[in-house]
Amino acid sequence: MTELNPYRPEMATVIEIVEETHNIRTLRVLLNDPEKMKAFSFQPGQVGQLSVFGYGESTFVINSPPTRRDYLQFSIMQAGEVAGRLHQLNVGDQIGVRAPLGNYFPYENMKGRDILFVGGGIAMAPLRTLLLFMLDNRKDYGDITLIYGARTPNDFCYTYEFDDWKKAGASLILTVDNEAPDWPHRVGVVPKVLAEEAPNPKNRIAVTCGPPIMIKFALAALKQLGYADEQIYTTLEKRMKCGIGICGRCNIGEKYVCIDGPVFSCAQLSAMLPEL
Amino acid sequence: MSGKIFVAHDALSGLLDDLSKKFKVWIPQMMDQASGHIAFGVYAPGKKPELTRRSRLSPKKILFPSMDTLFKFTYVKDPKDPVRYTIDLKESFDNGPTLVFGARPCDTRGFQTFDQVFLKGQYKDVYYERRRQNTLFATLVCQDSDTACFCSSVGSGPADMTGSDMAVIPIEGGYVIEGLTDAGRKLVETSGSAPSPEQAAAAEQMKRNTAALKIGEDDLTGYADDLTRRFTDMDFWREQVSPCITCGVCTWVCPTCYCFSITDEASGMSGERMRSWDSCMFYLYTLEARGHNPRPTKMERYRNRVGHKFSYFPKKYDGMVSCCGCGRCIRTCPVSIDIRKVVKELKETADDRA
Ligand code: SF4
Ligand code: SF4
Ligand code: FES
Questions:
Q1: ipTM
Q2: Which residues are bridge partners to A148 per DSSP?
Q3: How is domain A10-101 classified at the CATH fold level?
Q4: pTM (2 decimals)?
Q5: Of B249, B242, B243, B227, nearest to B303 (Cα)?
Q6: Which of A237, A244, A275, when mutated, tests ligand 3's pocket best, judged by the most ligand atoms within 8 Å of its CB?
């Protein structure tokens, strides 16, 4: 992003596309200016505004970790006009990128602790960034467990990476909402599986992302298991436009999700006005 | 020189003619005689400033146009490989020297809210900044309050010159114009001749008298925590806003409402990214792509409007209320919702209201 004009996107080229599910695809992009691509620095959890000129902008988390710099990766669920258009792009197409924006997961404070990721659907995207970042710095963290749920076996993203994640030292617990033929893993919504697995809260940080309803029940399940508010992190989604704390729309009381978030601890959330 | 000039009523046009050679000069002018609609428009010889009646619309659009182009984009096909293309971006800045003549203290002070958000945060809004830097304000010492005005209730008053470069002080026979900032003084000193000692004294007297006026009965600052306390009291919000038709005119006329949307307008291979005024009173404002809306009804939305001005903003910016007390929302609301009353009642208990 130019320092001068925070509304001006950098031009970028789509270099690779992965169709993850019937309604989620992943774009791998490179900033057109090689110098800027080299200098691009961000933290796990930060987001970008992607532009399709003529259609507008929409917010997506940068879900490649800062430790892997071959490209910037964004996963897009088909919802809304810009996302719909992003789903029609081909390799070689041009988009605009305003990034990095927002805050990030406080991974420094998570060092030396066990980590529990709890994710549902497309919200695996922000978790992927932090998960890979931690796997790339594996010795800094203790046990890393991921509970990842989707509606059906066909609704998981990044399935082609699951083996790599395990090899790098993560335990994966996969679950689908309902019984499905030949599904070898768990069945049941994420909060339920979370309660059954009951990962010990001692010296552990839980990071949970998902649709609002899942978050609500996942937070309740975590608290039930004895997790304190300070041990739980989540990301919030709001409709955004500027992404830089000016246009006014993403506020919860005096906090702006675009600059004060998207990452919040449960302790921070409890201190905020209830307007999710 | 004293940094002051006297301009007789019949010399005002001459002054504006001169100024308009150096500046784009905006004055309050009559837009529609029948409805008495006064708004800010660009001065041209022959136009008369309306300096004795308040304007229906504030000068907000001068620094923050209701529709503004952020940049233009063009898809440029690669002549050698026509399936490939690049995108050409051109920012457009519109920032010639500008003078706002005859705004009122509330109008000028409205931009203090913008300054906090657009200039002093983590990111700078360059479009606003460029206009702001190139704009001078010659603000009237206000003599024309009505019962909807309440500038004194929000830490201001009819002689408050916060953010003004010049004060325009009405006296017998004309105006004393006094430079307040370096730029304002410089302009004043080259624009006319000094007032007589009597005129200068009359202007001082006028300023003192006006500053002593109290426009608005109650102090409406210091309600930040009351809003928080009331936040989930939906009976309260229902009672306050049940007549509201969510037309959004309260935010449109408001000199401190700055929320905007960003959209692309395109045709063929090119188009523009625009920013345009938006309103937190609209359902779509917070509607998320997947259907969830954190402010589904007018109760949550009006709560945000009041909350932002009287609670969130002061919490974030050192106690500063982001309402300048101009009364425009009260005058224009089709169902006469009175923001003063809503704020005051935040403090009352359920018993008080019963
Ligand atoms: S002007 Fe009145 S009716 Fe219209 S949105 Fe504002 S409060 Fe509601
Ligand atoms: S809220 Fe109403 S009184 Fe306050 S500045 Fe806005 S329009 Fe004026
Ligand atoms: S998206 Fe504009 S203020 Fe947050």
A1: 0.92
A2: A119, A174
A3: Elongation Factor Tu (Ef-tu); domain 3 (2.40.30)
A4: 0.93
A5: B227
A6: A244
